[in-house]
């Protein structure tokens, strides 16, 4: 999960989502999330097929919010590895039951109350949390107050599962977020809007690895709570 791409069709522009994904995965992105709040199920299925082809087995692939789309994609033979759910989306227990024990299930969290709720779930229900926002971001206009690196570190330290930092993450944040306990960086604008997504991904990974020496454990993970 070192580098996690969340797609944005508008930011990808004329290059398109699938080509942006292909180039970002060439640069080392390890997990891709299809996020398109304005697309209906059929359009998301079309995008899922194109994205899966662009990934070509080189990275994990999850669908944002839409468990129904993830299941429909699997029925069509599209290799979808799981879902990322928000606090108001499909019940996470239902998603785990529907997708199976090997699926990737991520969950949005930005408060201690969210962490406590995850800790009460059966072990193995949630694989990781998307924690943010780190900075204010236009890609999620209804976001909660920005946590900053220090706020992220406080939540990551008490999380029962690994935490991925998301929301306005910049290149200069990478080393600090890793040192703060991040299991990875989820990036939207910095890759989708980049002139060269492959080069941008490589730059993020280089900055991420630069933070390794000072890094703390990324959540309590399998030792406590629901880690798998």
Automatic annotation (TrEMBL):
Binding site for 2-[(2R,5Z)-2-carboxy-4-methylthiazol-5(2H)-ylidene]ethyl phosphate: 137-139, 168, 188-189
Pathways per UniProt: Cofactor biosynthesis; thiamine diphosphate biosynthesis; thiamine phosphate from 4-amino-2-methyl-5-diphosphomethylpyrimidine and 4-methyl-5-(2-phosphoethyl)-thiazole: step 1/1
Family: Belongs to the thiamine-phosphate synthase family.
GO BP, sorted A to Z: thiamine biosynthetic process; thiamine diphosphate biosynthetic process
Catalyzed reactions: 2-[(2R,5Z)-2-carboxy-4-methylthiazol-5(2H)-ylidene]ethyl phosphate + 4-amino-2-methyl-5-(diphosphooxymethyl)pyrimidine + 2 H(+) = thiamine phosphate + CO2 + diphosphate; 2-(2-carboxy-4-methylthiazol-5-yl)ethyl phosphate + 4-amino-2-methyl-5-(diphosphooxymethyl)pyrimidine + 2 H(+) = thiamine phosphate + CO2 + diphosphate; 4-methyl-5-(2-phosphooxyethyl)-thiazole + 4-amino-2-methyl-5-(diphosphooxymethyl)pyrimidine + H(+) = thiamine phosphate + diphosphate
Protein's recorded name: Thiamine-phosphate synthase
Species of the source: Leucobacter ruminantium
Listed InterPro entries: Aldolase_TIM (IPR013785), ThiamineP_synth_sf (IPR036206), ThiamineP_synth_TenI (IPR022998), TMP_synthase (IPR034291)
EC assignment: 2.5.1.3
Pfam family of the protein (one): TMP-TENI
Gene label: thiE
Residues covered by the Thiamine phosphate synthase/TenI domain: 3-191
Binding-site list for Mg(2+): 65, 89
UniProt keyword terms in alphabetical order: Magnesium, Metal-binding, Thiamine biosynthesis, Transferase
């Amino acid at each position: 999960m070192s580098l996690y791409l969340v797609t944005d069709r508008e930011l990808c522009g004329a290059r398109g989502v699938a080509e942006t994904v292909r180039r970002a995965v060439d640069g080392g992105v390890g997990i891709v999330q299809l996020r398109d709040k304005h697309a209906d199920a059929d359009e998301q299925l079309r995008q899922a097929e194109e994205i899966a082809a662009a990934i070509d087995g080189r990275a994990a692939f999850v669908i944002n919010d839409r468990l129904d789309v993830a299941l429909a994609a699997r029925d069509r033979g599209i290799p979808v590895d799981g879902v990322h759910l928000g606090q108001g989306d499909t019940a996470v227990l239902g998603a785990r039951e529907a997708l199976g024990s090997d699926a990737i299930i991520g969950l949005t969290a930005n408060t201690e109350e969210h962490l406590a709720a995850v800790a009460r779930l059966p072990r193995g229900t949630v694989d990781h949390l998307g924690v943010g926002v780190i900075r204010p971001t236009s890609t999620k206009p209804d976001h909660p107050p920005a946590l900053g690196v220090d706020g992220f570190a406080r939540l990551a330290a008490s999380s029962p599962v690994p935490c991925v930092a998301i929301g306005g993450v910049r290149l200069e944040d990478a080393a600090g977020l890793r040192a703060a306990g991040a299991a990875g960086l989820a990036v939207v604008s910095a890759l989708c809007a980049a002139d060269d997504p492959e080069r941008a991904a490589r730059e993020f990974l280089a900055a991420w690895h630069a933070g390794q020496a000072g890094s703390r454990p990324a959540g309590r993970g399998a030792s406590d709570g629901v880690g798998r």
